[in-house]
Design goal:
The protein is built from eight helices and no strands.
Length: about 170
Amino acid sequence: MDNTLIEQIVNEVLKSLDTGVKCKEEINEVKKEGEKLTVKDYPLLKNRKELLNTRTGKNITSITMDKVIDGEVKPDDIKITAPVLLYQAQIAESVGRYQFGRNLRRAGELTLVPDNRVLEIYNALRPYRSTKEELLNIALELEEKYGAKLNAYLVRQAAEVYEKRGRLKE
């Protein structure tokens, strides 16, 4: 497939998103003492270490090379988490980088989706790989099974654009 065509499709999907209006139910904001993070909190590793916890509950400061070598640090201890991505989204939005913040929020949602399923969905979103019904089922799955409402919205938008552009599987 022509890369220019793929780029045009992606741009059309992005343009169709109303980035100024939030989806009806965005994922919950992660807040510290009721306030959103701002650029003064960046970088988090330097300024807000206490917020950087792993999936297993370890703080980033407890991960050391010695613990890695001793086998005390497991893969889940170093994977990015939804709260950390949401903190980064808050910081990006505080400096007007709303689309980047939206991307980070979608990434945060995807931390709850198994890696192999993310890859399957990625492949299904490629032009001519899925019917509209298959894409709408993926959106429903993202929304209902994983609570990934922003990603579900994006998949629905892609289905509409692919239908308009004739890029759905027959």
